[in-house]
Amino acid sequence: MASRVDHEYDYLFKIVLIGDSGVGKSNILSRFTRNEFCLESKSTIGVEFATRTLQERYRAITSAYYRGAVGALLVYDITKRQTFDNVQRWLRELRDHADSNIVIMMTGNKSDLNHLRAVAEQDGQNLAEKEGLSFLETSALEALNIEKAFQTILTEIYHIISKKALAAQEAAAATIVPGQGTTINVSDAPANAKGGGCCST
Question: So where does this one cross the membrane (predicted)?
């Protein structure tokens, strides 16, 4: 039985990885968390676009998957054009189910297979720019830009959280109105202080 190690965190952010089956989401995650890559990895069951019926049946799972997420890596495979063409559908899915302020980075994975490229890097860059997303090409196999992708998204999330915390502090400070504290009347002298100074007899 594996024991779970409890850690103390200053912040704990939920980041979801979405995209078509076989684009490398699991390997991106294992490369980032354990610095491992599995060549024989099988496609995992995730939030997939299959049929309308399947999508409706798993809508509750889909909503649960996105719930609480503050960041998303939207992954496509640079060697499979269809995975890039489906990015817009994934973006709609994400925007329908996730928080409206979620930070999204689009990632073209498998850049180590440049000789099999079906999606130009500029196409990815253009779509990301059009949608207001960050963009990087990655290779889970070569560990290229994996750390950078997560660091970029986490830094952006941290800045947003920090701004919200600062705004909340400023709002709380603004609600304290001068004059609503305790009033101290300085004209009331204590009863035993009738005389004054060193010369009183």
Answer: none
Other C-beta atoms lying within 10 Å of the C-beta of residue 45 = 8
Catalogue the long-range contacts made by 85-89 (C-beta closer than 8 Å, 24 or more residues apart). 86/19, 86/20, 86/49, 87/19, 87/127, 89/49
Q: What are the structural domains, with CATH classification, of the chain?
A: 15-40+55-168 (3.40.50.300)
Contact 134/150 with Cβ under 8 angstroms?
no
Q: What is the pLDDT of residues 31-86, one digit of tens each?
A: 998 888 887 766 554 444 433 444 555 556 677 888 899 999 999 999 999 999 99
Alpha carbons 87 and 101: distance in angstroms, whole number: 19
How many Å apart are CA 65 and CA 46, to the nearest integer?
Answer: 9
Beta strands in 1-48 (DSSP E): 14-18
What letter represents residue 172's amino acid? Answer: A
Checking if the pLDDT of 159 tops 50, the result is yes
The pLDDT of 148-165, averaged and rounded, is 90
Instruction: Show the CA angle centred on residue 91, arms to residues 89 and 93, nearest 5°.
Output: 70
24 pLDDT tier (thresholds 50, 70, 90): very high
